[in-house]
Amino acid sequence: MAQKYWIGGFHIDLSRNQISQNNQSQTLAPKALAVLTYLAKHQGEVVSQDTLLSEVWPDTVVSPNTLQRSIAQLRKALGDDGKVQVYIKTHAKQGYSLECDVRWINHNEISQPDEKLVEETEADKNFVAKEVTVGQNSAEKKAYQSSGAIKDKPEEKKSNLVLMVTAALTAIVVGLVGFLNMQSNEPTTINISHIRALTATDNKEHGGIYSPDGQYIVFRRYSIETCSNNIWAKDAKTQGEFQLTRNLGTFGSHSFSPDGKQLAFIKSDDCTTPVNQKRCYKLMGLDFHAALRTSQQPNVLLECTDSSIRSPIWLDNNNIAMLQNKNGRWLLIRYSISENRSQVIYEVNDGSIAAYDYSPAFGKIALTSTRKDGESFIEMLDVSGKLISSHKINYPQHISRFKLIRPNFSTIDNLLIFSTGRQLYTLSYDGQVEKVSLPLDVPISSPKFHPDGDKMLAIKGFMDRDIVSVSISQLRQNNRAPSLEEGPDYNHPTIDRSILNEDKAIWQPDGDLIAFRSERFGEDQIWVNDGSGSRQLSRFPMDVFLYQFDWALDGKSILANTDRELTQVFLDGSDKTIPTSQPVETLFQWDSEKQKALALVRISGILRFVELDLERGSSRVITDKRVYWAQRSESGQLVYMDQLHRFWRPGPVEDKLIPSLVNQGSERQFVIEDNVIYGINEDHQLWSYSLEEDEFEVIGNVSNGIDYVTDVKQDDVLMSLRIASKKEVAELTLAR
Known about the structure:
The protein is mainly β. Among the domains are: 1-113, Winged helix-like DNA-binding domain superfamily/Winged helix DNA-binding domain (Arc Repressor Mutant, subunit A); 205-342, TolB, C-terminal domain (Neuraminidase, 6 Propeller), CATH 2.120.10.30; 465-498 and 548-556 and 576-724, no CATH class. It contains eight helices and 52 strands. The relative contact order is 0.08.
């Protein structure tokens, strides 16, 4: 099909998404031009809305409003409007038609308009415009009638008078709308002019939001010194800070009720009697204005003991939306406070919801989801959960196809905003991703707009972890572990210390190298240390997150989980992608000789514990249990830890618990070396268990800053030590 054509005096260039006239070009959305092109191919015919929707948005659910917005964009570009329809005509309850002649341009043809078509189109347009304005004075009307353009018949005089009055009013309205549109100059993209920090402490802050009136900034602050987690508020004018809660514990994001009187958030605690999960989840409510005066204990609105909930957002002063995990799949639910009941308002049958946001200004819910084929979608709902549109997200080449997108509404209609870690992007309702200009060199996340739309909050900062080597024999002798405040002592020497994040260290099989993850140059990369120094091994692009990795048995390469895709990195720095059809959430272990891997893979939105066959590109589900971590011993024995942090071994008929390890599991991963399991329990004790001899031993205490064991080699243990977590609330001002 030709990429260029003329409609009257307008030149359409599909390769550039442009409409031009008199050397003035306008860039339009590709879908809008697709609508125009389909009408042009059927010039003079009435094309129904259903036909346009199916032809321009194939295999996608969209509402008629989406088509109407495209028609409005086209009319504006062509100088048409809803009343004066020279080019695109609306046929009530039937559809649309293109009324102007079309001339298609071949590749070798000079792109010049047909002068006759231009003259005829302009004459038609001038005639209509004259007809609209002619009623403004009788002298002009008589002169125009005498020219022969309008000839009143006696029986038409009354109707013409009504027409002239209506036309005059229409002209005034059209002119006023056009003037307001020119005055608004609403932006179609987001640009950042400058950034300033709003908090400046040694603590870790998260989840910054504005109050509905914009007066307060509310965030949660974790104090490393006191190991406490609380919600704080900051007055945007006076800069005064207020602690709203007392020793709250672990909780997630928070949300304001529309009237600004209540805060809602999710708190999680260890279940008294665990059923299917170790932690129970409570929806909490807090009187915001009372908490500004003195710290408050929040009220429990809802408790979930057999499912998890997250991301509460108020829909109105009585209803709160949340995500609920049932059978491994996330659903969108609405909870009514007055009725004390909830209902599912949206679910993805062949996948799972990743994230969502609600805009009271637009009256819409935006959510992203992953499907059975691993693709991601952006879907728009009304407040009741009714689907408005659904589009596959068009990932740019530099963003991994399995990276989860968690967008928030901006104040520009049709544009959401999200962070990939070091970069902000916009996401349109139809799945298009564009980069935001951002002068920042540290990680940034969780963008939330101010009610006025001229600025937004985000969290910026970094994590500082070190790799420490601990002697098992010394740990047995010295049962006292250093505290996090004391830092590592002689029992905790570090491996190549930096002020940024280093962790996940593992020894090279039968070699002297230690591979580890480092962010020291601002990006997640694999580094190797040979005992005398470190060097960067991988060259992953910016914004790639490195999850887990494992050495090949011959020590010549490393298999890495990068943004849920598998990449094999060789010692010379080269790499290759290992194709997978589904996102890999967690890579546990790699058997390079058999080309098999233990992993958590998301299948139809649900996490499954599988053995991947990397040669055939297939997978085998090992168990339907929800698995947290897994390893296979040198003798081939498989051990996995479930969501209740219980240890299991597969049996001939059913899997068996390991009785000696009851209450020894935690959120810290374990390793197996020489058929011995090593782990850290919730009392910060390093322990071991022999699979062959069924012997359990508590080796000794470790610092409460130790996150987990990463590898064991003879008498030495590699661990990740948390030094600091510097996160702060920042305010980003938009360029206008």
